[in-house]
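Ticket #4471: structure output looks truncated?

Reporter: J.K.
Steps to reproduce: submitted the chain below (161 residues) through the standard prediction queue, then opened the result file.
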Amino acid sequence: MTDITYIRTYEGWLYLSVVIDLFSRQVVGWSMKPRMTSDLALDALLAAVWRRKPSGSVMVHSDQGSQFSSGDWQSFLKANHLVGSMSRRGNCHDNAVAESFFQLLKRERIKRQIYPTREAARQDVFNYIEMFYNPRRRHGTSGDLSPIEFEKRHYQSLTGV
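Returned output as attached by the reporter:
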């Protein structure tokens, strides 16, 4: 699942695109840029593909934003054996997991602040995702485990059989 949100800085907006694994709720790819263009979303998806190295077909769900309907996005999906899936127009519930992540980020870290620079925002969001959310943030849908711990235990259970 992928989506985009914005972060306020005194230099202007900073846009954050994330790719979230629905199985574990782990943010597996993300990108931040001062403009909300297709390369913002593509960089997040590229990071997810690089991190996960999918061997089979994988579904990537998004809303109908222009970033996700661009020719570059569609070409990238096809070249990497990814299957695109889009929400119906006006159906915000399809992206509930991504929206939930953004709500947590804003409530637990950003808290209505305006960062002095885009770089300060980037560093803080990086810290939140990679040092807190993925390795430590517990989720009720994952048995009260962090996304990384949930995946670790799942794969250990598969090798123990």
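Triage note (M.O.): checked the attachment and the full token line is present. The chain has a mean pLDDT of 92.
Status: closed, working as intended.
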